[in-house]
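look at this stuff:

>
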Amino acid sequence: MSLPRLLFFSCFMLLLVPVVHGQQAAGKDDIQTSVKECRIIQMGLDERARLQPSAKIPADDPHAAAGRACDELSQAISTSDAEKIQAAAAALRPILARLGLPPASPQEQLAALEETTSGLSGTRLFCKLPDLAKRALNAGETDKARTYAKQLLQMPPEDPNWCYGDAVYYGNFVLGRIAVQEGNLAQAGQYLLAAGATPGSPTLDSFGPNVTLAKELLEKGQSDVVLQYLALCKNFWKMDRGKLDEWSATIRSGGVPDFTRQPNY
């Protein structure tokens, strides 16, 4: 998929087309965001092809579908035809929503995942619950987020697999963030420590934890529990390159670490 620089400049013409077929057209920012996400998606597809050159990609693979839709958007932008661009952007948006990516709104992302997981049970549902809980929280659906998070912690798989570590982490993570929103910092701290006690997972082991909850508690003066949490994270995040020690040292000196480079997946 080729996404040259001219795509970004072509997006400005969209300001001249506020409505297409009676619907609100995608704005310049939405198109630019879509192009940015397309570049990231293509990098992922290229890396997967490099690592698994002979692997057969399922027809319903959402990343492959996104790649095809991104190609359509790229081709449409190259024509400078506003209507074609709008149509391609409209086709791409629900695919990005299923992947939990902008410019789809948090509400669209939640609805898309709930639709694709409808009817799942057992391990297949268990492995989707972390994303359901996080998306519900991001969409402002606190009751749903709480329900999904509790379901994660009450429904261990028959045979613990790579999903289990994410379940322990994100079930507690989401409940902890809800507790912060409700002003119960002591309970939020308990959930933070429970999240840090995860046995880990391929993603957590490689990229480390989502530190949003830790940051929220630290900003509310809960440095002791955050330090305990960071110590727990050492048990699974072996590839931290000294970040955990660096963050801990900053907190002990009375500062707030720069968490901006840590992914909030």
